[in-house]
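REQUEST ID: PR-0412
SUBMITTED BY: lab tech R.K.
PRIORITY: routine
TASK: structure prediction, single protein chain
INPUT:
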Amino acid sequence: MFQFGIIMVILIGTILIGIPISYSMGITGLIYILITNASYIAIIPNRLYEGVNQFQLLAIPFFLLAADIMINADISGKLFRFVKLFVGRFRGGLAYVNVIVSMVFGSVSGTALGDIAALGKVEMDAMDEEGYDKDFSCALTAASSLQSPLIPPSNIAVLYASVMGLSVGALFLAGLLPGVMLGMAQILYIIAVRDKKNFPACNEKYRGSQIKSIILNGLITLGMPFIIIGGVLGGYFTATESANIACVYSLLLGIIVYRNYHLKDFKKALENVAHQMANIFLIIAFASVFAWIMGMERIPEQIAELLLGLSSNKYILLLLVNIFLLLVGMFMDTGAAIILFAPILAPIMYEVGVHPVHFAIVVLLNLTLGLITPPVGVVLYSATAVGKRKFEDVVKSLIPFLIISFSVFAIVCLIPACTLLLPGMFGFL
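STATUS: complete
OUTPUT:
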């Protein structure tokens, strides 16, 4: 345990000085082996390989590729204009559009950062032109992106399922209702403050031909999430296969339908995804080594004894776990946090009666919220960078959305039916 205390100090120290999380875990794991038993070094290659040798993980690069194609083929922009056509004319219309488009785009990209990359500038520029407060528009864009990792397909849900041996389809469905609840709560907040904040209505006029074009392009775009989600739920293909279909559908739209996507764009997309996946797989691989170290030190058993010694009440334990995961999400990559802590915490919660699928969504909710929570909210930093806003000013405007998120997540945490209803209806439980 003493050695483990030392390496935890090393891990936290390396992260704080700016070393990437993957390298921090790799360095820490190596130091642990050298100070305990150098012969264990022969185990590292095997642990690295086992960490990434999961079939389900193949879904992640293909969903990332589909999102990249959507961005560069302006498919996400067509989706934005489609939603804007129907709700933009209402007071606060572009704020509604921001939330709704993020919900729909989340059903394709599966990542909050993907949402910011695809839609952040478009949404914020449009709101700026209509006279919205700039800090508010940036805060809303960051907050609405949280739907993307919850609404299926979700990359972190795929990762959690592979780590914990759960059904990807079950987690997809379990995250759908919480994601929709979060989006609807944000819309209700906009309705509540639109008059006080004097939100404008979009006065853009459309010709008949423009309306037809926007509707047609929007419906074609919406075909993708219906195919992906419907196919997985219907049992026609796996999550990994659905990710491939998403790529093919995006390519067909960009190359054949819209004719604004070319071979050089696809080559660049492959390069971008390769760079992203290199980082993701490094994190997964080194996190697998670190998880093995924690197993060697019997950390899961000791944490279980500690928590169960404090209380056997599942609600108290859920509160403690929520606080812990929220703090972890502020400072640590979501994927690494899942690999490190899910195998430790999940068995404890199972023991006090929390359903595995319900707890999976609780974990994802907390780690996702950490993406926009200071001091190290990756998505929040990205949104402020895209919108060219001051971080501290955006945080002030973000506070109501954080309260909304906490409230929704508390409801989901306390009412398991929010996560278990849909998987049960479709036969995944």
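NOTES: The mean pLDDT is 82.
REVIEWED BY: pending
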